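FORM 12-B: Structure-to-Sequence Request
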């Protein structure tokens, strides 16, 4: 694939993508293998919304990720698996071995009755089988729904039920750092609340004794041994669904964001090559979990589309010590390293001594994703990890966008610390003011929207297209609204300022406050709660819950502990509130709406001017809450 090598080339490519979007993307698409070419490049309206790319084409993502490379790189390593415990051997799969495994597993799926369009839930840790399973689904046109292995039984069953998955893939247990996660046990609990799962395929990862339900639960290795390794890639229609990935919004239960095949493939393949300035033969390491979109797009699919060697790291950055990332880079001679600001900040807090005996000279490009990167962390990353020799690409995007939309292009875009910089080719941004008008000119700030489709965009919310429309296309008619605030500085550089809705971003995990409140309210003593985010040095945002309790308690400690554990159980351990303040009431307007603006200011310790409180039913509530405020700084 041809790549952008100079800033002038970027500008030319960008201009062409605006003036002639169809010609631009058709040209990019030529670099992939199509079983049948398209009739139309793009058909769209943001009213429906209805968007289709490469309509009429047939293509197989797994063929493009694997088979296409067999002629030239069959024996090149496709995936390196680095275990949680560095003393255990790492594993590799060459493109030929990956092909064998994916074909076999695709046959396993078929033998279990999985057909094109059926949903398969993947609840696996960071092991090779996760990638194999995703690619096998893509090979036969089954739709995968990967659920992050840190989610609770409740969250898992909700997701299985929503997508009506018929097959579930999991493992016995996994260790992350020194923490054991009993996946199969969680699965057993989740399946008490689901009816649609016919079989569970279990990968024996740690040889841990587990319960296997006869007739339902099957061993991965046995099925693989019995399956043929011949499985031609099925022709998939361009707009056939590829995967569902659940994400939190400001209201209600998580949404199953639906991505389709051809546009997604073209978009992530193109952005990977360009954003990271990927060169043939390089080793790419993305530290995201396959349970999140970054893991889907830039750990599994896009590197393989480009014939790269991609690393899958099972562990955590602080185990066995806080030098683990740097050991991993040294050991596997990583050229491009892509991680989240929260990880950078947590390692930064531990000091720079750890770098003394690490050789990081293989690094060429560094990436950041998931939340705004503050300038201090940016400089620390640039100096200590990149030794001032590596460009940092601060990539802004979302589960819904499929791939990166705003980012510097490595070695091309002049860097500005903490700025995601410029839109990639094909990306038409708009900043909107409060009245719904597009803000023109530079040195401005507004709500970030997209005014033209890009191939990687989500097409719907699974099973609920009206929700897709109300969530993303109704705030500003004719625009996709991201939920993020954004500045455009005097040089035209973009800087994301964070969510403007009720979504909080904790260590790069998107959590809807409504979801947390629902979980907290389930506690028998709780009448009502309101959750807001506050700035947190390491996690980006922390979770602050204001809770009304139905009885007097001499000490709140036990209740706080129970609420924390309950949230961990219902949503997942990463969603535990940091601060829980028991309050006599919540600040409500006459229409019964909680005034979150005030709670946010209290949580942020920005209490000198709380703004207008006269519309509250009882303004004295604010003083009572302030009196019991918990320290957050
Ligand atoms: C935030 C992750 C600032 C943003 C790929 C977005 C960022 C949400 C950045 C999507 C960045 C992601 N700078 N903020 N470089 N990248 N975000 O769906 O608020 O898990 O809306 O996708 O993360 O999170 P999601």
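FORM 12-B RESPONSE
SEQUENCE OUT:
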């Amino acid at each position: 694939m041809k790549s952008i090598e100079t800033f002038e080339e970027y500008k030319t490519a960008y201009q062409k993508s605006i003036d002639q979007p169809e010609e631009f993307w058709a040209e990019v698409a030529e670099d992939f293998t199509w079983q049948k070419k398209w009739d139309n490049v793009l058909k769209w309206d943001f009213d429906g919304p209805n968007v289709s790319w490469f309509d009429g084409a047939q293509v197989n993502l797994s063929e493009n990720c694997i088979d296409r490379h067999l002629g030239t790189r069959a024996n090149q390593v496709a995936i390196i698996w680095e275990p949680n415990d560095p003393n255990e051997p790492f594993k590799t799969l060459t493109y030929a071995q990956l092909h064998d495994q994916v074909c076999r597993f695709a046959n396993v799926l078929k033998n279990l009755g999985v057909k094109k369009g059926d949903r398969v839930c993947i609840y696996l840790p960071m092991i090779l089988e996760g990638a194999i399973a995703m690619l096998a689904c893509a090979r036969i046109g089954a739709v995968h729904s990967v659920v992050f292995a840190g989610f609770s039984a409740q969250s898992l069953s909700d997701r299985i039920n929503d997508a009506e998955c018929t097959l579930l893939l999991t493992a016995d247990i996994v260790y992350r750092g020194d923490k054991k996660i009993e996946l199969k046990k969680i699965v057993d609990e989740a399946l008490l609340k689901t009816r649609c799962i016919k079989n569970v395929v279990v990968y024996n990862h740690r040889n841990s004794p587990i319960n296997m339900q006869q007739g339902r639960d099957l061993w991965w290795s046995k099925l693989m041994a019995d399956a043929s390794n011949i499985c031609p890639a099925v022709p998939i229609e361009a707009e056939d669904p590829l995967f569902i990935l659940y994400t939190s919004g400001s209201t209600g239960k998580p949404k199953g964001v639906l991505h389709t095949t051809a546009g997604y493939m073209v978009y992530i393949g193109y952005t990977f090559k360009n954003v990271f300035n990927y060169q043939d033969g390089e080793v790419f390491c993305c530290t995201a979990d396959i349970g999140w979109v970054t893991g889907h797009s830039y750990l599994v699919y896009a590197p393989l589309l480009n014939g790269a060697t991609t690393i899958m790291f099972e562990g955590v950055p602080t185990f066995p010590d806080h030098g683990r990332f740097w050991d991993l880079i040294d050991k596997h001679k990583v050229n491009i390293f892509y991680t989240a600001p929260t990880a950078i900040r947590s390692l930064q807090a531990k000091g720079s001594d750890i770098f003394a005996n690490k050789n990081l000279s293989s690094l060429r490009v560094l990436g950041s994703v998931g939340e705004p990167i503050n300038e201090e962390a940016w400089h620390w990353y640039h100096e200590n990890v990149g030794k001032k020799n590596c460009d940092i690409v601060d990539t802004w995007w979302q589960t819904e966008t499929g791939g990166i939309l705003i980012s510097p292009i490595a070695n091309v875009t002049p860097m500005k610390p903490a700025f995601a910089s410029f839109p990639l080719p094909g990306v038409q941004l708009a900043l909107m003011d409060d009245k719904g008008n597009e803000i023109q000119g530079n040195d401005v700030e507004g709500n970030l929207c997209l005014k033209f489709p890009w191939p990687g965009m989500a097409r719907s919310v699974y099973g609920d297209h009206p929700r897709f429309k109300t969530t993303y296309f109704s705030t500003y008619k004719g625009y996709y609204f991201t939920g993020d605030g954004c500045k455009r500085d005097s040089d035209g550089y973009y800087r994301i300022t964070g969510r403007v809705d009720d979504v909080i971003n904790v260590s790069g995990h998107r959590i809807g406050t409504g979801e947390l409140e629902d979980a907290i309210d389930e506690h028998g003593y709780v009448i009502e709660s309101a959750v807001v985010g506050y700035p947190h040095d390491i996690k980006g945002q922390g979770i602050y819950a204001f809770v009304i309790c139905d009885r007097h308690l001499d000490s709140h400690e036990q209740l706080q502990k129970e609420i924390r554990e309950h949230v961990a159980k219902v949503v997942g351990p990463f969603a535990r509130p940091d601060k829980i303040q028991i309050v006599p009431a919540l600040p409500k307007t006459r229409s019964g709406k909680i005034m979150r603006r005030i709670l946010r200011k209290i949580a942020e310790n920005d209490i000198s001017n709380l703004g207008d409180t006269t519309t509250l039913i009882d303004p004295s509530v604010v003083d009572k809450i302030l009196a019991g405020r918990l320290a957050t700084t």
